[in-house]
Amino acid sequence: MERYITLKLPDPLGSDSMVKLCSMSSLITIEKITLPLPSDDDKRADDQRIRDVLGLDQLEIPLSVLRNIPSQAGSELSCIIGRTTHGNRLIDISAGSSYSVALDLGSTNLVAALYDNVSGCVVAEAKVVNPQIRFGSDILTRMHCSMSGKAEEVSKCLMDGVDTVINTLSHDAGINRHEIHALAAAGNTVMSHYFLGLDISRIPVSPFVPVVRKPGFFKASDLHIGIHPEALLYVFPNTGIYVGGDIVAGILASGMYESEEPCVLIDVGTNAEIVIGCRDWLLAGAGAAGPALEEGIAGIGKRAETGIIYDIDIRDRGIECRTFDNAPPQGICGSGMVSLIYELYRTGIIGNDGRLNSGHKGVDMLNGGYAFTFSCGSGDGLIIQQTEIDNFLRSKAAMFTLLLVMLRSVGLRFSDIKKIYVAGALGNGIHVRKAVGIGMLPDWPASRIIPMGNSSLKGALMLLGDSSLLEKEDKITEGITYKHMHDDPEFMREFSGAIFIPHTNPELLKIQ
């Protein structure tokens, strides 16, 4: 029996984006009060009367709000209050509506959701290609540019992209950008540093030290972001140079930190990143394997959306492609890449070393190397090149080897893991049998695999809806042990065998 997870067309959240996420402890709350006028019998300062009416002794009131209080005395105020790890901040006293933004700082794409602080619903979503890609498709190339005297330019380029995605959200929702009172951003360690305009020069060299591990809260005006100047700006913490705030957000979104049994979180994108653990402990690791599953790297690679291939079967009568919404094929997403590589291997178009068979129909020379052209019944042919196959196999090898080495390091076997959360490009409709067939996953039952979609964005949204998660997130960050794989001898030894399909030692894939 085939084991396959069927998904409806995913959105950036990996679920129904109009879901209500509000809670009594949202990051931003709105309190309507009437500020009493001062009198001979009430000579309290304006700021104290606001604190007393709100019942909040610990309330930071910025200068911009203090300047506006006298003109509002005696009238009804809409107090926009932000909750931080250090207390409460009064952001505005005269706002009509209030929104927040959840932002996934991806190295390839910037994905954002607009959250209505009143209704507790996501009302708009947007995605733009990270403009930093002009400095290089991968993080290391961009870091090299930064360290060669272009640091300010590379950071500014990112902020231009952030401005574009916020502008798109505001336009689509028909709101004023100054009605946005909070922004929660999650990205890998380097992306978070670029977002904050911090020096990245010590991250890629020994002893691999970031400027900050737990950035925390800032004001939007600190970063010159065009939303309300007093808006809360929160950046998720990192736990290592290769395990950043996007993974912390993913842990939060999966709920694995509350599980009694050990779980696994897998995110394959620019890096293969894995977290193993439960409520008592968490172990994180990463391997810089290359972004083989991300859109923009492979020529046919696309984000999962209408018309994108998520599964392929190569038959004698031709090639059958399944696309989201059954629309004409326009590219292939991460799960589709898994399916394609499996089918190429099963039919002998590539060997167990991943090399294209030059004698097979559809394999031709292109730009000095071999490439395979296929079509899905009609329309233009899609091309995958040998270099793209090689990139994919390195990513799948890194992912499997990380799993193997990390589980061994804590004395666990594949059979001990009951829940596997799969995030990122790979998580959108993964075909379990085919992933096992190429050695990307061990032989886990499909029932254990839980697709997460964009877990980074989902975790940021959860935080906007429930500020009490700040305390849980802090516990998560403090409880993570980071296993550095940069020069781990066991990882290096096992990695070379995992590049082959399915593996030079297929017995390792079995659940025992």
What's the total number of strands?
22
Low-confidence stretches: 1-12, 14-23
Helical proportion?
A: 25-40%
**Overall pLDDT, averaged?**
87
CATH superfamily of the domain at 99-235: Domain of unknown function (DUF4445)
CATH topology of the domain at 99-235: Nucleotidyltransferase, domain 5
Q: Look at the helices and sheets and give the structural class.
A: alpha/beta
Distance between the termini: 20 Å
Would you kindly provide a written description of the structure presented here, covering whatever features stand out?
With 512 residues, the chain is of the alpha/beta class. Among the domains are: 65 residues, Roll (Ubiquitin-like (UB roll)); 137 residues, Domain of unknown function (DUF4445) (Nucleotidyltransferase, domain 5, 2-Layer Sandwich), CATH 3.30.420. It is 28% helix and 26% strand. It contains 12 helices and 22 strands. It has a 6-stranded mixed β-sheet, with helices on both faces. A 6-stranded mixed β-sheet has the order 21-20-11-12-13-22, sandwiched between helices. Helix 6 packs across helix 11 and helix 8 packs across helix 12. The longest helix is centred in the first third of the chain and has 35 residues. It starts with 27 loop residues before the first strand and ends in a 14-residue tail after the last helix. The N terminus is likely disordered.
